[in-house]
Design a protein that fits this description.
Radius of gyration: 12 Å
Organism: Reyranella humidisoli
Protein name: Carbon storage regulator
Structural class: mainly beta
Number of strands: 9
Length: about 90
């Protein structure tokens, strides 16, 4: 079962020893993210994408203009956290 996490453009998600951030929302069913290696990846609502070994990311359909909901599948022992917003 995938973890569903609401995120905004620019937020950073830590998964195990890796991180990724949302660069842009590219329409209602796609978004672009970047991982720590510098690889940019487009994720879609129609399929899951392996962005890092054993870490699959997808997108719930109908993303908003500024927020979206990520579907994250990773081994249970991987910690998944959203970094605190430094502007708060």
């Amino acid at each position: 079962m995938a973890l569903v996490l609401g995120v905004k453009v620019g937020e950073v998600i830590d998964i195990a020893d890796h991180w990724l951030t949302i660069l842009s929302i590219d329409g209602r069913n796609a978004a672009t993210l970047i991982v720590e290696t510098g690889l940019k990846t487009t994720i879609h609502s129609s399929r899951m994408t392996e962005v890092i070994s054993n870490i699959w990311i997808g997108l719930e359909p109908e993303a908003g203009r500024h927020r979206l909901r990520l579907l994250i599948e990773a081994p249970r022992q991987f910690s998944i956290t959203r970094r605190a917003d430094p502007t708060l």
